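Please decode residue identities from the backbone states below.
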């Protein structure tokens, strides 16, 4: 049975939504969650009839969002350190955390280790698209200062993830730039462009709009740009929904129309842009599986993050990444 280590204390709202998400996941999938944190707190939120369906590992420390990520390696009694160690020691197949993302990435990289040929892991996330399959973007915050080699490795990792997890046989990989022409870009992207041409799925430079119009399946960028892109997109989505509500309230016909469309149209739109539907972002390039969830994750997000971890561990993503990199040496 697959075992998934879960940082039960990470997140903005404490263990309650995390435990609830674990329970929801257990109702659907057969797996063994290993909850890491304060045992008495965990048991206070865990329904008694689920106590024999989980394992609990005691952790006396919690890394707060305001703490320095660089201190994570020293805090060996923290819930995230102990959860990552379970993966390192092969006692769990993957780890899920909604806690301090920097601490999780640091520990996963240094304690679980990187795949052969990977210099730095990349954080990947799915962005909404007008087509059925959403667009995978990486890196969105793991590596702010990238080399061309990093971007090439992100492309290989994204291609492997799209094949194994998104079930896209021949994914199209694009390099985010300020124009689609081959000559566009800065010094970094121009150098990366040459390396990315080694990937079978590379389609060249793409613009920001191509993330959302379905023209490509994987978009590669440095972590600084990717993180700004991610947070800007979240802000745009939130603003659009706020403006829609404001305008609907001002018009009776709009209110009637909105009521009629609430379930089918608005419901489906909200579902497509809701981070809780995806659960979290995989840290690609480590010798294992780490899913990093939003700090404000609700139970639904935790449930889907667990599903993502299970699917990742069942797949050949890491093997495919190694093969792609060794083929293009």
């Amino acid at each position: 049975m697959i075992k998934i280590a879960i940082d039960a204390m990470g997140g903005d709202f404490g263990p309650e939504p995390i435990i609830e998400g674990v329970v929801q996941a257990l109702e659907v999938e057969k797996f063994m969650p290993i909850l890491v944190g304060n045992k008495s707190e965990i048991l206070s939120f865990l329904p008694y009839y689920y106590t024999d369906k989980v394992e609990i590992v005691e952790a006396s420390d919690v890394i707060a969002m305001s703490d320095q990520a660089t201190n994570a390696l020293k805090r060996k009694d923290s819930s995230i350190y102990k959860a990552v160690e379970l993966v390192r020691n092969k006692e769990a197949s993957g780890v899920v955390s909604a806690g301090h993302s920097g601490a999780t990435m640091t520990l996963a990289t240094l304690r679980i280790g990187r795949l052969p040929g990977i210099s730095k892991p990349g954080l990947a996330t799915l962005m909404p698209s007008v087509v059925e399959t959403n667009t995978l973007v990486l890196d969105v915050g793991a590596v702010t200062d990238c080399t061309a080699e990093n971007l090439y490795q992100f492309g290989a990792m994204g291609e492997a993830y799209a094949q194994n997890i998104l079930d896209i046989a021949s994914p199209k990989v694009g390099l985010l730039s300020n124009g689609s022409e081959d000559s566009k870009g800065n010094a970094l992207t121009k150098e990366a462009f040459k390396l990315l041409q080694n990937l079978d799925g590379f389609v060249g430079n793409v613009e920001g709009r191509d993330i959302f119009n379905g023209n490509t399946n994987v978009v590669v960028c440095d972590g600084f740009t990717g993180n700004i892109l991610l947070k800007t997109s979240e802000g745009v989505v939130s603003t659009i929904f706020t403006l829609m509500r404001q305008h609907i309230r001002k018009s009776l016909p709009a209110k009637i129309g909105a009521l009629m469309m609430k379930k089918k149209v608005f419901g489906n739109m909200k579902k497509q842009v809701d981070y809780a539907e995806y659960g979290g972002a995989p840290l690609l390039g480590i010798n294992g599986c780490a899913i990093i969830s939003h700090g404000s994750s609700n139970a639904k997000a935790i449930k889907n993050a667990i599903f993502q971890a299970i699917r990742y561990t069942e797949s050949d993503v890491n093997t495919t990444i190694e093969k792609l990199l060794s083929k293009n040496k």
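Observation: The first strand starts at residue 3 and ends at 7.
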